[in-house]
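We treat protein structure as text, and this decision shapes the records that our systems exchange. The remainder of this section carries one protein's record, kept here as part of the documentation:
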Amino acid sequence: MRTSTRRPLLGLFAAAALAVSSLTTGTAFADAPAAPRQAAPDAAVADSTGAPITLAAWPAPTAQRPTGSTIAISGSVDGGNARYYGTGELGGDGQEEGQDPIFRLADGAALSNVIIGAPAADGIHCQGTCTLRNVWWEDVGEDAATARGTSTSHTMTIVGGGARHAADKVFQHNGAGTVVIRDFEVQDFATLYRSCGNCSTQRARHVIIDNVTVTAPGSRLAGINSNYGDTARLSRITIVGDSNRRVVPCQRYRGVTSGEPSPIGSGPDGTNCLYSASDITYR
């Protein structure tokens, strides 16, 4: 979905935490004594035959950090597996348009070892090239992360981590360039990646999805606009608990600049949806 055009809020930590508007290389986060709203518990995970499946363990939070306004990140920041969640103006976790993010990453920034709890607002905004390493979304809000770079060279890279309970999209691509999703797991979601279907400025966007474990229910891994030249490259995908194969690996749309996009096909085609049957494993 389109992102907010409201003037971004400067990053502030809640309560008596550090009063800073941006975080630079090596900056440590400050603790705040509060607890987030708890995400819905997960059901046991089983494969298509009903046999139990063991997935990678999600990290336990080392601290609780309520966040009332967007935190601006520059440089490289390690969150130490603290859990961040929205309060006040960031206290939304629905699909309302125009929510602000918990984190806003400048071009070239990297964020690692962070848990985003609920409410999650609009997750993370990446303003150019950025890296999200071992970031875990416990209950996705509007979107988990949005790529907003303006150059074809801008790349949002997600390495490790996971997301669950996404009523709509996990990763939204509104800007230019490429999104890379690697060594990731996603559970209970609608769409893992979506190239904006109705942004006022459209362009060719690209996504690489590699070594991702998907646990049903889910609707689609990649939604792309073939009429604008989008591509989705899929490899080493494992889909768990989808005996009827309802999760669509790659859905093609006819994108628009206003109104609603329309689906026009799915499956590998050698042009936009770039994968083969051997790239998808069902368990």
